[in-house]
Amino acid sequence: MRTLRVAGFLLVSAAALTGCGSDAPPAPASSPAAPPSATVSPTSASSPPSSSAPPSSSGIAQPAGPLVAENGTDLKSCRDGDCEVIVKPKDKLAFDARLRVTSLIVDAVSASGVTLSAALPRGGRSTISGGAGQTNGIAYRVTAIKDGKAVLKFTPAT
Asked: Disulfide engineering: 131 pairs with which of 40, 70, 71, 113, CB 3.0-4.6 Å?
């Protein structure tokens, strides 16, 4: 009698562990042409198709078409620390004193991000690089790179 109770308990436990009665949708049937080890990954029906290029290994998009930024190449639009611009090496961006960064110079653009030199109000300098970063009161994120140019999104750091 005890063996039947243990066996019944094991059957109920196994059923619970395998997901019987779960709200998950049933697994799709595999087609005869698919190898037995092939898996199907679910996609969200509510997410729109991406119009941007796939990201590089660094996670930064490398579009097939031209780079597009909200403020184009108008580097003066960044003065308040809130802009999105296309930059290339040797470009210089000036910022309001409240951001505690006098200016940023684009030293390099590579597939993994940018290298920026920051001039600080009291005469110091710092270098930041990569796909995202921050110095004093300004933060940046690289959203796309192509042909030695990058789209940088600047925001005041909090």
From this structure: 113
